[in-house]
TrEMBL record:
InterPro entries: RuBisCO, RuBisCO_lsu_C, RuBisCO_lsu_C_sf, RuBisCO_lsu_fd_N, RuBisCO_lsu_N_sf. The keyword Endoplasmic reticulum does not apply. Signal peptide: none annotated. The lineage of its organism: Bacteria, Bacillati, Bacillota, Clostridia, Christensenellales. The keyword Lyase applies. One of its GO terms (molecular function) is magnesium ion binding. This is Ribulose-1,5-bisphosphate carboxylase, Type III. Its EC number is 4.1.1.39. Residues 13-118 form the Ribulose bisphosphate carboxylase large subunit ferrodoxin-like N-terminal domain. Belongs to the RuBisCO large chain family.
Amino acid sequence: MKIETMTLSEHIKDDYLIATYYLNSEKEPDLYSWVKLIAADQSAGTWTHVEGETPEIIEKYGAKIIGIYPMAQEHACIARIAFPVANFQIYMPMILSTVAGNVLGQSGVRLVDIELPDPVLEQLPGPLMGIDGIRGLLNVYDRPLVGAILKPCIGVGPELSASGAAKAAAGGADVIKDDELLADPAYSPMVERVSTVMKYLKDIGKDKSCLYAVNITGENLIDRAHMAIDAGANSIMVNYQALGWGDVEDLVRHLKREGIKIPIFGHCAGMGAYYTSKTNGMSTSLACGKLPRLIGMDMSLVYPDSGRFGISTNELVETHNALSADMGVIKKSFDTVAGGVHPGTIPYLMDLLGEDTILMAGGGIYGHPMGATAGAKAILQAMKAYKAGVDLAEAAKEHEELDAALKFWCK
């Protein structure tokens, strides 16, 4: 019987998580049978009956199909499948193994969302500080945060990185981060770089009002975090997908146990392999939004809808929502929009995303014709003009930094 594994969502309550899939394949003759097979493959069942697979086991540990919604004018459907929480430990690698393990190896299967009940959310780490904690730390409440990506990103020593950080901070940058390509090379050791940057920030009185997210990506992640903190780091950064969900989650759990509250910046390096296909992988909002938030990213990088990285406007908005909407006990995270951001893009991005975001620029600050300090000032000037309802062209008449930026990038 096609619907023998179907149930109503009201039945599942807190004992299940719900995975939503988009299924699209002309090779599968019957969508209902395909969904049933996926539910079996990923829980207490397989493609054929095996010894020991009793009705009682299937009832207690088998996944339940709670919705199949055929799509008009295509051989596709949205499927919602509930997986018993009893089947896995509350640990992101096992959650993903359950809902995205073998199934994502099939052509035409895309994981759209995972809905987690409160008992599961309560056992996941979530951000250490979240939006409210970071705003309180920086004393910035009424606008997006200004972010800067240190440039040049590779091939330079700690002194040049520190000088660049100080210049951006002097212009009003609230958050400065390493590039994802810069972690611990011989020419810029992580410990030396973070201590040098923090010294430069302290020298200009910005070590308490500007975060420097030093990239600690590497082996022995927990030890590296402590090394960075001992060297004066007030924020740390990880390439969460490249490191692995488990390593990053272990780090956040460890910091929570130790009572260490430090903002963590999550870079999505490598996640494009998951979200760029429209019929395979997983949604952008899940890959760059909900999942990194659940494992503890206070700030999560998201590319803008400029076309350079293949994210649509809808995907950007959905990812912003996945990071900042209420989710039980899990704190809200900043989405950090980076990639082609400059003063001329600020009104559009603020109109689209509101104020609970970090608008971060690399070239848009360090490529400013008047230098990095002017670059950060120009972005801050654009934010204030937008909030005041003043057109950027008008505001530029009063601010030479903004004027230079608009003439340079908005010809």
